[in-house]
User: Which sequence fits this backbone?
């Protein structure tokens, strides 16, 4: 026990501390989920196996016609695509110290606008329609995001409150238009958009399997890399980070705080818009009126689990997607309500948000230990610095 | 029609008010609280579960159930708010992050356990608890006042409970030693520490109070206004309450007014829609009104307000 504690404490103060916070959060989440599953009389091992099987990481015992492990894996990537974009969007605002809870609303707005403008236009060729969808997503989301930034600096409205209000306004407004003009009478959702505009290629035959190919995945990874580049190498990225750490200090040093806040919120909204079009014109191809996508909130878990790094978001996104996407198969084979997927990502979020406390505890226990051992081998003092540099 | 606007407006405004006061207590003590939405949902879930379990035992329609449900909801909200206290006070996490984390967790937790409880109790896979609607009553003389008589017509019993609670909470905040210390914790915690009180203990009390009050607000929405408990309880009412608190500039009196404005805007919009005989689709546009109004009011009122100085900062004794 003592060895484990010492090992963890060293890892949490060492070079890859942020990575270890995520690993520990995932482990704690799996322990909590196992206790929950045991409490309901289900085997946690089988449950985790079915989660993986549902996503195509492990082979199932039997497959229906036209599906297989590869098509499951592609379905998983199809879900992962908008999730990566949404969490990169969250990170972009988070670096400026802004909490963009409005990703759901921005996704919905972008998805709705793109569906109405391009998705219902049957004549467009795929080579015009797909870029047009992306462009509209960027614009619609970006404008919605910039509005929140504007309200923040001009009127001092807390972004969490304003984004929630705008979320519901967008949800009711688009719901009204869908119900009035674009509803499919059979499914009570919006009419499906044209295949030409859809960002996921459906019914692609690979061998004897019908597969979906998410074209947006390339854009998602590109966006993550670009945002990482923005924060590491550019002046604008540095200014956004500076504003996030200390607004007053950046103001004195000549950074235009207002413009920076608008920029980061606008950028965040634009990426959320991309997530929206990948979700509504890719993962699904219809919109359920008056329902905000829960992905906008899962994105927050992903961003926190990835320690606010865009590259980390890709891997953290995969972890969260396994539970979200595998929940259906898990639910059908174990008989546990599939709402457990959201519960699991909620618990994960809870542990991930305790990251600072974990590191504080680790540093503390090493300091206590250092009082007992000779001073020559005190870790932490030099390594701590590196760990803090690592964060950025 | 004007009477109906007042009746419905008040019954929406009061649960909102009790949640807003919950948020106010927490923020006045220096703990930023965006978790009201989650507290009210979990409180409502516990209350609704208690009501569902009790209904067959006590006979449905028994009016005592609502009071028991309210107590359970308050307890549930308070227990759940420990999580916020733990993260913000003990673990010193970022209080905004903690609030949002708790809201997300609350949605997932209640959605999952509602399904689980339903399949355990009656074997159906529904995500709803169907609840009764409590009886209403009309105050004899006051309801005859022309104009505002609607405020006293068809009242739910919870409205009286909430009004009594609000008066008590105002007294507790502004006229007692505990209230003064609580306010001081949000403005200058070091003064409280120097005076010999424990800042963290007072903040814990404030967070627990905010959880209990939000729980009561939640069960009022679930038991009487909506008539069931389902994940649709998360309609942003908690955030509306926080907005009301911001208009009220962190004071109970003006916050009450702000809640009344919200309530009347909501019921007024709905009645207007009915009076104009618009198709049912258009109700969506009117349901949007409170949110639009909030945003507009925030634009006019946010600039000049004075949030508690120490809100959002974990208490650190060695800091100065």
Assistant:
């Amino acid at each position: 026990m003592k060895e484990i504690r010492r090992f963890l404490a060293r890892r949490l103060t060492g070079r890859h501390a942020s990575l270890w916070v995520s690993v520990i959060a995932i482990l704690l989440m799996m322990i909590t989920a196992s206790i929950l599953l045991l409490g309901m009389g289900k085997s946690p091992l089988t449950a985790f196996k079915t989660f993986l099987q549902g996503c195509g990481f492990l082979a199932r015992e039997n497959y229906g016609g036209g599906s297989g492990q590869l098509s499951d894996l592609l379905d998983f990537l199809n879900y992962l695509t908008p999730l990566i974009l949404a969490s990169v969007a969250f990170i972009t605002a988070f670096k400026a110290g802004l909490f963009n809870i409005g990703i759901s609303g921005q996704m919905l707005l972008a998805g709705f606008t793109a569906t109405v403008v391009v998705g219902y236009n049957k004549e467009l060729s795929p080579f015009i329609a797909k870029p047009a969808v992306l462009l509209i997503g960027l614009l619609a989301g970006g404008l919605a995001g910039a509005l929140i930034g504007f309200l923040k600096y001009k009127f001092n409205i807390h972004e969490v409150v304003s984004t929630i209000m705008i979320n519901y306004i967008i949800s009711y407004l688009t719901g009204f238009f869908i119900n009035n003009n674009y509803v499919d009478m059979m499914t009570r959702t919006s009419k499906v958009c044209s295949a030409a505009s859809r960002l996921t290629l459906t019914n692609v035959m690979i061998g004897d399997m019908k597969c979906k190919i998410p074209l947006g995945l390339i854009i998602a990874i590109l966006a993550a890399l670009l945002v990482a580049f923005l924060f590491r190498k550019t002046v604008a990225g540095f200014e956004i980070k500076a504003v996030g750490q200390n607004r007053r200090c950046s103001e004195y040093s000549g950074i235009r705080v207002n413009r920076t806040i608008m920029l980061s919120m606008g950028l965040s909204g634009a990426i959320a818009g991309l997530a929206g079009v990948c979700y509504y014109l890719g993962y699904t191809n219809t919109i359920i009126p008056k329902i905000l996508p829960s992905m906008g909130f899962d994105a927050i878990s992903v961003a926190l689990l990835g320690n606010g790094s865009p590259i980390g978001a890709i891997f953290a996104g995969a972890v969260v997607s396994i539970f979200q996407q595998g929940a259906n198969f898990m639910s059908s084979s174990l008989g546990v309500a599939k709402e457990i997927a959201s519960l699991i990502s909620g618990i994960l979020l809870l542990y991930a948000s305790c990251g600072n406390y974990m590191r504080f505890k680790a540093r503390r226990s090493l300091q206590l230990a250092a009082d007992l051992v000779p001073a020559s081998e005190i870790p932490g003092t030099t390594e701590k610095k590196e760990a803090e540099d690592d964060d950025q | 029609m004007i009477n109906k606007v007042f009746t419905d407006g008040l019954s929406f405004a009061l649960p909102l008010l009790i949640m807003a006061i919950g948020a106010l207590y927490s923020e006045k003590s220096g703990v930023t609280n965006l978790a009201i939405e989650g507290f009210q949902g979990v409180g409502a879930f516990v209350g609704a579960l208690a009501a569902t379990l009790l209904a067959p035992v006590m006979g449905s329609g028994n009016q005592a159930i609502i009071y028991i449900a309210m107590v359970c909801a308050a307890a549930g909200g308070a227990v759940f708010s420990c999580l916020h206290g733990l993260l913000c006070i003990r673990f010193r996490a970022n209080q905004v992050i903690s609030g949002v984390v708790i809201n997300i967790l609350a949605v997932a937790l209640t959605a999952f356990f509602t399904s689980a409880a339903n399949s355990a109790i009656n074997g159906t896979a529904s995500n709803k608890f169907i609840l009764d609607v409590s009886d209403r009553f009309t105050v004899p003389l006051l309801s005859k006042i022309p104009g505002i008589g609607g405020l006293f017509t068809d009242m739910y019993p919870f409205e009286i409970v909430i009004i009594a609670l609000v008066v008590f909470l105002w007294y507790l905040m502004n006229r007692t030693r505990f209230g003064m210390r609580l306010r001081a914790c949000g403005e200058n915690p070091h003064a409280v520490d120097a005076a010999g009180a424990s800042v963290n203990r007072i903040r814990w009390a404030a967070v627990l109070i905010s959880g209990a009050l939000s729980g009561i607000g939640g069960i009022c929405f679930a038991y009487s206004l909506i008539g069931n408990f389902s994940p649709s309880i998360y309609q942003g009412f908690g955030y509306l309450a926080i907005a009301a608190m911001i208009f009220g500039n962190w004071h109970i009196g003006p916050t009450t007014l702000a809640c009344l404005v919200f309530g009347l805007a909501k019921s007024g919009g709905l009645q207007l829609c009915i009076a104009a005989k618009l198709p049912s689709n258009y109700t969506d546009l009117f349901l949007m009104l409170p949110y639009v109004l909030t945003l507009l009011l925030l634009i006019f009122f946010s600039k000049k307000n004075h949030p508690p100085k120490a809100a959002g900062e974990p208490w650190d004794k060695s800091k100065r």
The mean pLDDT of chain B is 87.
